[in-house]
Amino acid sequence: MAWLLLFLAGLFECGWAIGLKYTDGFTRFVPTTLTAICMVASVALLGLAVKTLPIGTAYAVWTGIGSVGTVLLGVWLLGDPATAPRLLCIALIVAGIGGLKLTA
Fold first, then answer.
1. With 80 as the cut, is the pLDDT of residue 27 above it?
2. For the chain, is the Cβ count within 10 Å smaller at the N or the C terminus?
3. Tell me, what's a Pfam family for it (predicted)?
4. What integer is the mean pLDDT of 10-16?
5. CA angle (15, 74, 88) in 5-degree steps
6. Can you tell me the distance from the alpha carbon of 97 to that of 52, in angstroms, rounded to the nearest whole number?
7. Contact of 16 with 35, CB cutoff 8 Å
8. Which helix (H) or strand (E) is 73 found in, with range?
9. Residue 63: is it exposed, middle or buried by C-beta count within 10 angstroms (0-12/13-18/19+)?
10. Which residues, 6+ apart, have CB-to-CB distance to 73 below 8 Å?
11. What pTM, to 2 d.p., does this model score?
12. Any residues with CB less than 8 A from the CB of 74 and at least 6 apart, and which?
């Protein structure tokens, strides 16, 4: 259950990171509100997950999911470049997340 909560926290992390782009400097009400909700949900779910998971592992996985998801969404939604070196780095982050989960 803790891993599911952590995964959901990582998804909300992606939501607020991408949401920042749409807030236009926190001048647009709906995107700002949704971004704030994602921020609170992300941290709250992380807090629940670390009740049973090691904090170092949970934090690294949380930020990893957020990083990978945000980069991929940036490529898909915002036209960020998808160069081979960037994708290789994303693959390394995914490998690290998998390794941490296997050793937790």
1. yes
2. N
3. Multi_Drug_Res
4. 97
5. 115
6. 17
7. yes
8. helix 55-78
9. middle
10. 14, 18
11. 0.86
12. 18, 80
